[in-house]
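okkk here we go again. third time trying to get the 2-acetamido-2-deoxy-beta-D-glucopyranose bound version out, last two times i messed up the smiles copy paste (missing a bracket lol). double checked this time i swear
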Amino acid sequence: MKFVPAGVVPFVALLLLQRRPVAGRALLLSGSGCPGHGLCRSNVQEQTRRQVALLNATAQELFSLYLKCQGEPFSSESDKLCNPAGIFFPAFRVNRTSERKEVMVAMYKLFAFLNASLGNITRDQEELNPMAKELLERLHNTTKTTRGLISNLTCLLCKNYNIFQVDVRYGDSSKGKSAFKKKQQGCQVLRKYVQVIGLAARVLLPHLSPS
Ligand SMILES: *[C@@H]1O[C@H](CO)[C@@H](O)[C@H](O)[C@H]1NC(C)=O
Ligand SMILES: *[C@@H]1O[C@H](CO)[C@@H](O)[C@H](O)[C@H]1NC(C)=O
Ligand SMILES: *[C@@H]1O[C@H](CO)[C@@H](O)[C@H](O)[C@H]1NC(C)=O
Ligand SMILES: *[C@@H]1O[C@H](CO)[C@@H](O)[C@H](O)[C@H]1NC(C)=O
Ligand SMILES: *[C@@H]1O[C@H](CO)[C@@H](O)[C@H](O)[C@H]1NC(C)=O
Ligand SMILES: *[C@@H]1O[C@H](CO)[C@@H](O)[C@H](O)[C@H]1NC(C)=O
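finally!!
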């Protein structure tokens, strides 16, 4: 049995995140930067499956609860106000026949973006709806699962493809925006997330089936 030193994974995750977005272009570099063996736990594939399935299973409830907690006009006009057409969200153009490597990279970009977005949404909700305990708890849980997933994807990318650097494009920070804009940005992101996580689950899960 191999012992995995606790410091290794966060170090790699940090490496991955240090490259800032280049105006929407994704640049992949692979080389010799992956740490040696022992980075991944033996059940990493199974963990990844479970995390994606859990996020998919809880996304809709998170969105519905989010809407409910924003009050009017969000609860009654969500179709209009939460239309995600105008926001940046990572493209997710992979499908079942895409190469596994492409799928993993697209997943990484998606969940790194989601983690940053959840950070903004949580900060805003703590300020705007501090009494919405269940919403805050769901946001924390989703963030925690997302971070675990990112660390597992980091390890799979390194181990299987020697990819240790992925350029991620992030959305706009909501800092300094009006309360209305903060609520709106959160609902646009979460609504799009519900759509994309369903697709991600359909595409990724078959790629991770026990083989
Ligand atoms: C699946 O994605 C690949 C690129 O990853 C693309 O070339 C192919 O046309 C797509 N297939 C379908 C059925 O959409
Ligand atoms: C997640 O986002 C937070 C900002 O909210 C950032 O500090 C952290 O490094 C990110 N973690 C990962 C694994 O991307
Ligand atoms: C808010 O979002 C921006 C852009 O995605 C990101 O850089 C920043 O870390 C996020 N802030 C928090 C507190 O997560
Ligand atoms: C958050 O996660 C904890 C631990 O897994 C769980 O007990 C709790 O029910 C979750 N809360 C919500 C609102 O989903
Ligand atoms: C993978 O996910 C599990 C469950 O969240 C977590 O305990 C583990 O630290 C993650 N990362 C790796 C590299 O196994
Ligand atoms: C994703 O979640 C939806 C809603 O809970 C569910 O209907 C669907 O079967 C899930 N997809 C996968 C691939 O698990």
